Amino acid sequence: MKYFCLALLFASTAIVSHAQTTAPPTDTAVVEVLKFNWSKERIGWENDPFRGPIENFDEMRARTRNEKRITDAKGSGNADKVKRDASADAANIATQHKNTASRYVFTYKTTVKNSSAKTIKSIDWDYIFFDKGTETETGRQQFTSEEKIGPGKSKELVVSITKPPSHTISVTALNENERDSLIGRVVVVRIDYSDGTYWQRPGQ
């Protein structure tokens, strides 16, 4: 009986060891990154979604007051002077807007191809930047794109944010040579499929 229990214990240990060393199969070619790029664009104040209305409350009140003064002065000898004063106020406001620091938005793009037999529901992807001289990582942008991509199909993923690729890129000035100092790479981190399954990059 003693030898039987020992034999059973060894058999159980062998089964557990086998279960621990058997890993699930990993699909290493579920998606292919075809191309990628990034750009930096100036946001004009008239189109800046991050700033709000061009005219603030005080400016609106001044404009309304000047319009009332012009209306009240019609028919009197002071109408021309009131109009000149109102025009001067408007010119001062325009100058203040012109002298305000510019803002920039950064657009990150990549085109991927679904190489699996399943339909993709969403993709987590990182746009990584390296210093061209030292090849050390200087910045990483992490995105989640909810895009439906059928088997064998390709799609461009686009994200626009105010965060630059790395700390070496200015957010208030435009330098055409900035991208020359960086090397970019796109890495797909996770894929969620429409059937409820997912793929995760090993090590993530």
CATH architecture of the largest domain: Sandwich
Mean pLDDT: 73
Helix count, DSSP H or I runs of 4 or more residues:
3
Tally of separate domains: 2
List the helices and strands and how they pair.
Blueprint: H1 2-21, E1 31-43, H2 57-73, H3 79-98, E2 103-114, E3 120-131, E4 137-145, E5 154-161, E6 182-193, E7 198-200
Antiparallel strand pairs: 1-2, 2-5, 3-4, 3-6, 6-7
Helix pairs in contact: 2-3
Please provide a written account of the structure.
This protein has 204 residues and is α+β, with helices and mostly antiparallel strands. It folds into two domains: 114 residues, Immunoglobulin-like, CATH 2.60.40; 53 residues. 28% of the residues lie in helices and 34% in strands. The strands form two sheets. A four-stranded antiparallel beta sheet has the order 4-3-6-7, with no helix packed on it.
